[in-house]
Write a structure and sequence with these properties.
By secondary structure, the chain is mostly helical. The chain has one domain (2-108): Zincin-like. It is built from five helices and three strands, in the order ααβββααα. The chain has a three-stranded mixed sheet. A hairpin with a 4-residue loop joins β2 and β3 (55-59). The protein is globular and about 40 Å long.
């Protein structure tokens, strides 16, 4: 899973969101990015950010709903935004980063996204 998360982080960095990429690298190096399955996290969740402990849970059902690297990286970025901002809401200026990420990749074409990896 670490290689997959590293790919997402590289995508975030390539989109010019280096602050979030650095946070992702730190969390990954600290073992704070985990793959979970229901019932640990309800199947309706794609991922979850524990803002207080600065931890991200990636939920296995996400991969069936969102098989593309772009969608997966967007979901991971979403959780990084929660941790970086310290907010559990979806309000505030930091959410523009998610839009910037999608716009960057929509102008780059699919060749810049890379291939999806198998989930470990």
């Amino acid at each position: 899973m670490a290689a997959l998360v590293a790919d997402w982080i590289d995508m975030i960095d390539s989109a010019g969101l280096s602050e979030y990429a650095q946070l992702g690298r730190e969390l990954l190096a600290q073992g704070k990015v985990s793959m979970v399955s229901p019932p640990m996290l309800d199947a309706d969740y794609n991922a979850f950010a524990h803002v207080n402990t600065r931890e991200v849970w990636i939920n296995r059902p996400m991969f069936e709903r969102y098989p593309t690297m772009l969608d997966q990286a967007t979901i991971f970025l979403h959780e990084l935004i929660h941790i970086h901002s310290g907010e559990v809401t979806h309000f505030g200026p930091w959410w523009i980063a998610q839009d910037q990420f999608r716009v960057y990749y929509s102008t780059q074409g699919t060749a810049s996204v890379g291939r999806a990896r198998e989930v470990e």
